[in-house]
Write a structure and sequence with these properties.
Strand 7 and strand 8 form a beta hairpin. The chain has one domain. The termini are close together. The mean pLDDT is about 95. It has no helices and nine strands. By secondary structure, it is an all-beta fold. Strands 1, 2, 3, 4, 5, 6 and 9 form a seven-stranded antiparallel β-sheet that branches. Strands 7-8 form a two-stranded antiparallel sheet.
């Protein structure tokens, strides 16, 4: 059994026991968070319009961190303009404890 959830402007396919990295949430480590379910697949498939009523995915916050560095390099040819910056996207790692 798996579900499609939406958080941080993205959609994730999850099942019970999965650990996923999502956009940063304002929750402390150890707290639980609930996500709305867009689609539920098991013995029969239920597709929400836009969400499935009465169903939620419950997750526990495991840790916060930052992703790998992405280098942003801008330049303009023949003009001696070069700018190099980096970015590390913050994330929250959660573990799905139940769907239903």
């Amino acid at each position: 059994m798996y579900a499609i959830i939406r958080t941080g402007g993205k959609q994730y396919k999850v099942s019970v026991g999965d650990e996923i990295m999502i956009e940063k949430l304002d929750k402390n480590v150890g707290e639980t968070v609930s996500f709305e379910v867009l689609m539920l697949c098991g013995d029969d498939t239920v597709i929400g319009t836009p969400i499935v009523k009465g169903v939620a995915a419950i997750a526990e916050v495991l840790e916060h961190g930052k992703g790998k560095k992405v280098i942003v390099f801008k330049y303009k040819p023949k003009k001696n303009y070069r700018k190099k910056t980096g970015h590390r996207q913050p994330y929250t790692k959660v573990k799905i404890t139940s769907i239903g």
